[in-house]
What we know:
Blueprint: H1 17-40, H2 52-56, H3 58-64
Bound molecules: zinc ion (ZN).
Zinc ion binds near residues 58 and 69.
Amino acid sequence: MTDFTHFPSAKPAVIPVSEILPWAVFAGLLSLLAIYFIGAEQGAVALFQGEFIHEFVHDGRHLLGFPCH
Length: 69
Ligand SMILES: [Zn+2]
């Protein structure tokens, strides 16, 4: 009878918060820009025809205070 014991040698990499924080702030700013431009689309100006984007983000527009109707 043989006994096999598994000892995993790979350990998860430790990433310090100081290295993650600038990227998290950058991603947050990009997200805010995306929310702004998608939310403002098909309001006073429109890059795309139709009203699909307006209707898709309509409740969010009102929540964030974009001028709507
Ligand atoms: Zn509205």
